[in-house]
Design goal:
By secondary structure, the protein is α/β, with parallel strands linked by helices. Helix content is 24%, strand content 19%. The chain is built from ten helices and 18 strands. Strands 8-7-6-5-4-3-10-9 form an eight-stranded parallel beta sheet. The radius of gyration is 26 Å and the shape is globular.
Length: 538
C-alpha cells in the first residue's frame, strides 16, 4: 500500500455419507422386501464410491490454477482469504505490534479466528539482508521464539512456522526494495533487478519443502512509468515473466502473483498496481504452467478521489470499473484473480458503499483476496484490530462477513496494554539518532529513540535504566509542534501544546529497580518529530 499522487476455496459440496446411505437401504429392506433387490444392485456402486473416497489423499497445501480457478492438490476449488500483516518491509524489519505484549501466536490466532486462511507478509530486500531487527520488540513477551539477536530473515522463518501451527498459509510479498519507501518499478539503482531475482530465488529455495508458503507476490504496486510491454526498462510484463520463471525454477509449486500497473495501455489510469486491462492481449506465460494469479489493488475515495467516485451512478458503476480493469480476467476464464489489497477505515458513507460493493463483487465472482491490513497502524485504512492489537474491529468484520463465512467468532481477549496506532501513514521514515540522557542527580537514565514518523505524528520509544530504586520516574522533552499524545504503553503522558511532552512510568513500568532496564513508548500527534531532544529526567 502507498499513497497516491496521480489520478491515476470454496469447499465442494459434500456428498451424503455412503455409510448412512447403506444403513438406510438395509432398513428399507427390512420394512419392504421388494426394495431389497434395488438396494442390493445399488450397493456395489455405493461401495465403489466409498472406496474412491477413502483413497482420496489429503491436500498437500500446494495450490495451482486451472482457467479461472485456484485449486488444491486434489483439484478442489480453493479461495485464498488473506490479511496483510506488515512491518517486515519497514525500517523496523519486524512485524508491527510486537513492541507491546502482543505475541506472534496471538496475532496469527486472531487472524485465523476471523475467518482468514492466509497471511500476506510484506518484506523489503533491505530487511532480508539486515543482520539485526531494527525496531522495538518486547522480547520477554515473545521469549518463546528466541528472537533476541536474530535477523529479520529468522523472524520470517518464525512467522511462517507459527502460521503453520495456527493453520494459516503465507504469501510472501516483496513490498519494497529499500525499507524507506516503495518503488514504482521493480528495481532501483541500489537494488537492481539482479538483486530482486536473487532474493526471490533464495526465498523460493528456502521454503521449497514447506507448503505453508503458497505464493510469491513479485512486486508491490508497479506505478508511474511501469508499462505492460514496451521499453525494457519499464516493461513490468517482461520483468514479471523473468521473475516468475526464476521463482518457479527454485520451487515449481508456488503461485506467482502478478500485480497490475497504474497507467494502462488503453490510456486509462487507476490505482497503483490496479490496472490489468492489458492482460487480455498480452498475458504472462511462464515455463511452468498453471501458476499465474493476477492481483490488482483497489481502494475507496478516502484514499484518493478517483474519477469514478464522482460519477452520478456511484456506487453502481463500480462493478463495471472493476470488470474493465481486472475482473474480466477471471470472468473470461483467463486466470484467477486475487484482490491483493483493499481496505478502509469505514468512516464515510462513500467508503461504506464501496466496501459493500467490493465484498459483493468478490463473493459473487468467487474471487480470492487479501485485506489491508491486520495492523491498526495503517494510517488511512486502520486495521482489523483496535489500538490494543487484540480487540477486533467489529464493523469491518461484519462488512467482510459475506466472504469470511464459516468464520468462528474472535476469541482473543484484549488486555489493558496499549500499543501505538499512527494515524497518517503505514510507512515510517528514517529514524533519528537516540537522544542522550543527562545524568544530573536523576534516579534514572534514559534514551529517547524515534521509532517512526509521518506527516502529523510520530512514535518514540524510551529506554529507561534505574540508577537507584525510585518510587516513580518521569522523562520530559521539548516539542514545539505537539498537540496531544494519542497512545502510550508503560507510561502516562501529558503535554503542554506546542511546548513539551512529559511521560511518567505507569502500569508494569511504574517502578524500576536499580540496574533494571525498561522500554516504554508513545504515539504523538505533532506536525514534525523532534530531533535528538534534550531530556529532563526526574
Amino acid at each position: 500500500m502507498k499513497l497516491f499522487s496521480t489520478p491515476p476455496r470454496h469447499s465442494v459440496r459434500r456428498p451424503k455419507p455412503v455409510a448412512a446411505a447403506l444403513i438406510g437401504s438395509a432398513l428399507a429392506g427390512v420394512l419392504a422386501l421388494p426394495v431389497l433387490a434395488v438396494s442390493a444392485q445399488a450397493a456395489p456402486a455405493r461401495m465403489a464410491s466409498l472406496t474412491v473416497a477413502a483413497a482420496t489423499p489429503a491436500p498437500t497445501g500446494w495450490l495451482h490454477t486451472s482457467g479461472a480457478s485456484i485449486l488444491d492438490s486434489n483439484n478442489a476449488p480453493y479461495t485464498i482469504k488473506a490479511a496483510s500483516w506488515f512491518g517486515l518491509e519497514t525500517t523496523d524489519c519486524v512485524p508491527h505490534g510486537l513492541w507491546g505484549t502482543l505475541t506472534i501466536d496471538e496475532a496469527l490466532a486472531n487472524i485465523k479466528s476471523m475467518g482468514f486462511n492466509t497471511v500476506r507478509l510484506p518484506f523489503s530486500n533491505e530487511c532480508l539482508a539486515a543482520t539485526s531487527i531494527k525496531g522495538s520488540v518486547n522480547y520477554w513477551a515473545n521469549r518463546a521464539y528466541n528472537l533476541e539477536g536474530k535477523t529479520p530473515l529468522d523472524v520470517m522463518d518464525t512467522v511462517i512456522a507459527r502460521a503453520k501451527a495456527n493453520g494459516l498459509q503465507i504469501i510472501l510479498d516483496r513490498h519494497r526494495p529499500s525499507s524507506a519507501d516503495q518503488s514504482p518499478l521493480w528495481y532501483t539503482s541500489a537494488y537492481p533487478e539482479s538483486k530482486w531475482i536473487a532474493d526471490w530465488k533464495m526465498l523460493a529455495a528456502r521454503y521449497k519443502d514447506d507448503p505453508t508458503v503458497i505464493g510469491a507476490d513479485l512486486h508491490n504496486e508497479p506505478a508511474g512509468a511501469a508499462t505492460w510491454g514496451g521499453a525494457a526498462a519499464t516493461d513490468w510484463h517482461a520483468a514479471a515473466t523473468r521473475g516468475g520463471n526464476a521463482v518457479l525454477a527454485a520451487n515449481p509449486n508456488l503461485l506467482i502473483i502478478i500485480e497490475g500497473i497504474e497507467n494502462q495501455g488503453n490510456g486509462t489510469s487507476t490505482w497503483w498496481g490496479g490496472g490489468l486491462a492489458d492482460v487480455k492481449n498480452k498475458p504472462v506465460t511462464l515455463a511452468t504452467p498453471n501458476r499465474v494469479v493476477y492481483s490488482p489493488h483497489d481502494y475507496p475515495a478516502s484514499l484518493f478521489a478517483q474519477k469514478w467516485f464522482s460519477d452520478p451512478s456511484y456506487p453502481n458503476n463500480l462493478p463495471g470499473v472493476w470488470d474493465a480493469n481486472w475482473g474480466y480476467i477471471q470472468k473470461q476464464g483467463i486466470a484467477p484473480i486475487l484482490l491483493g489489497e483493499f481496505g478502509t477505515a469505514l468512516q464515510t458513507t462513500s467508503d461504506k458503499q464501496w466496501m459493500e460493493k467490493i465484498v459483493s463483487y468478490l463473493g459473487t465472482n468467487s474471487m480470492s483476496f487479501a485485506y489491508w491490513a491486520f495492523n491498526p497502524n495503517s494510517g488511512l485504512t486502520g486495521g482489523l484490530v483496535q489500538a490494543d492489537w487484540r480487540t477486533p474491529e467489529a464493523a469491518k468484520l461484519a462488512a467482510l462477513a459475506p466472504i469470511l463465512k464459516n468464520a468462528s467468532a474472535p476469541t482473543v481477549t484484549p488486555t489493558a496494554t496499549a500499543t501505538p496506532t499512527p494515524t497518517a501513514s503505514a510507512t515510517p521514515t528514517a529514524t533519528a539518532s537516540p537522544s542522550p540522557a543527562p545524568t544530573s542527580g536523576a534516579p534514572i537514565s534514559a534514551v529517547w529513540k524515534l521509532s517512526s514518523s509521518w506527516t502529523g505524528g510520530y512514535v518514540a520509544n524510551i529506554e529507561v535504566t534505574g540508577l537507584r530504586a525510585p518510587l516513580g520516574w518521569s522523562v520530559s522533552w521539548p516539542d514545539p509542534n505537539v498537540t496531544r499524545v494519542a497512545n502510550s504503553w508503560g507510561t502516562t503522558c501529558t503535554v503542554i501544546p506546542k511546548v513539551s511532552v512529559t511521560c511518567s512510568g505507569s502500569d508494569w513500568a511504574t517502578k524500576i529497580a536499580a540496574g533494571q532496564k525498561l522500554s516504554v513508548g508513545l504515539q504523538v500527534d505533532s506536525l514534525k518529530a523532534p530531533v535528538n531532544p534534550v531530556l529532563t529526567l526526574k
